[in-house]
Amino acid sequence: MTSSPKPTTPSADGARGERQRRRNLLAWGAGGMVASLAAFGAATMRSPSPAPMRWRGTGRVPDVPLVTHEGKPVRFYSDLVKDRLVLVNMMYAQCNDRCPPMTFNLRQVQEALGGRVGRDVFMYSVSLLPEHDRPADLRGYMDQHRVGPGWTFLTGTKDAVEQLRFGMGFFDPDPARDADLAQHIGMVRIGNDALDRWCMAPLLQEPALILEAMTAVDPVSRMRSRAATPRVA
User: Fold this and answer.
1) How far apart are CA 25 and CA 28, in angstroms?
2) CA-CA distance, 199 to 191, in Å (whole number)?
3) Given this model, what pLDDT does residue 18 score?
4) What CA–CA distance (Å, rounded) separates 64 from 76?
């Protein structure tokens, strides 16, 4: 009967070489994985806007001059957004189709937030027709829709409003559709500038869903949502 050959025992130098080779392979694999994740992260964080800009400060949130419904001149970012939790939408006083139901839904959101509005949550509506909407026109719109305190309506020059509109994503990539006011973007931009967290939500949906979207950027809303959710046994 032929005996099987005995396995050879690797030398100490050979064993050390094998261990080093394995370490090199692991290090190379980890490095490749880190590089791949970094590339993936960079790709997914690219802005869909025409010019990639950051959200914070005057980079993505334009610090344009505007005028409130009370006739007070303000800078949009410096005076109204910086370090705040905000809800921003666009409308115009002559709108009688989409704007009224969107304003109604936002008013429901305002009522649900209660005393937080004007204290640690701030609401802003910017006119899409600033050349027609004077502060008095905005005040009339607010009275008509029974808008409560802590919600500011804004107008200004056409150039300033267009900078704000494009800078915050209130535009359609189709120029023809974008130019049609009847099809303007019915969205609300929700942002927590202090934490640099931003999202968008459709305004023609249930107000409860707009409040739920706030949990993505607001720790207070998230904690309250968790507290209100019944635990499953």
Assistant:
1) 5
2) 6
3) 52
4) 6
